[in-house]
Amino acid sequence: MLFEGLNFGGKTTTTGRVYEMLEARGERVERRRCHITKSEITDSLEVAARQAVKDGTSRLFPNPDLLRPFHVLKSAQMIVDAEAAATSPYASDDGPILVQDRYWLSVFGGNEFFNPGEGYLSQQWRAQCTPRFTAQIYLTCSPAERKRRSLSRDGDAHGLNAYFRTNLDQLDRFDSFCRELIADDPTWLILSTDGLSPEEVAAAAVAEYDRAAASVRSAAI
Questions:
Q1: Where are the domains of the chain?
Q2: Averaged over 202-211, what is the pLDDT?
Q3: If we measure between CA atoms, which residue out of 102, 98, 184, 99 comes closest to residue 139?
Q4: Does residue 71 register a pLDDT over 80?
Q5: Does domain 2-220 bear CATH number 3.40.50.300?
Q6: How far apart are CA 110 and CA 130, in angstroms?
Q7: What sign has the CA pseudo-torsion 63, 159, 178, 168?
Q8: E strand segments, the chain
Q9: Dist. CA 126–CA 207, nearest whole Å
């Protein structure tokens, strides 16, 4: 299961609840964030990407110079990780269910929005190399709800939360941009979390996974 969406959209809370729901019903389930495989390369690229966006709250939005090194590193991480993911336990029919908090769409969308034309990840890579998850869910929310969540959140793991919190109106533009990238793709569910509890969002996500998994099984028969 892949959960995408932008900052303050509810991904981390939802993936935690989904993990608990699947585990409670006896599934073998694992949870990952940003990349699927565990290696020195993917971990070091993640650390370097976070370091690249420190102290960016005073920058204008969108700022291609601020985000360029971040997207270069994250794109390199995606290329390496997608190749490794193809032979990971999650790719096999009898492997555990993977609950993934962000993956390629966040990086691809960021490249196209902040650094258009620089081509760190190509359309061909998107079409041919990205892992296909049984359920792919984009979590979004209204501008008012995103603002409420941003004000109630403490801490900042990589510097981008502070940058986006300073530019919430522009972040909503970015969210619309990312949703447009998948609007016509039937393999994605765009789910608004406004007015829903974390448990209700997780239940809707698990229902989508069960529906998609049943469809895959039917097609295989």
A1: 2-220
A2: 96
A3: 102
A4: yes
A5: yes
A6: 16
A7: negative
A8: 2-4, 29-33, 97-101, 136-140, 188-192
A9: 26
* DSSP for 36-57, written as a single string: SS--HHHHHHHHHHHHHTTT-T
90 touches 96 (CB < 8 A): yes
CA proximity to 72, closest of 37, 121, 30: 121
What's the burial of 110, exposed, middle or buried (CB within 10 Å: 0-12/13-18/19+)? Answer: buried
Nearest to 41, CA basis, from 77, 79, 92, 8: 77
Q: Tens digit of pLDDT for each residue in 9-47?
A: 889 899 999 999 999 999 999 999 999 998 899 999 988
Tokens of 48: 């370097």
Place of tokens 């109630």: 152
pTM of the complete model = 0.91
**If DSSP codes are grouped into helix, strand and coil, which group holds residue 83?**
helix
Q: How far apart, in whole angstroms, are the C-alpha atoms of residue 31 and residue 97? A: 8
Three-state secondary structure readout of 52-68: HCCCCCCCCCCCHHHHH
Cα angle vertex 103, ends 106, 14, to 5°?
95
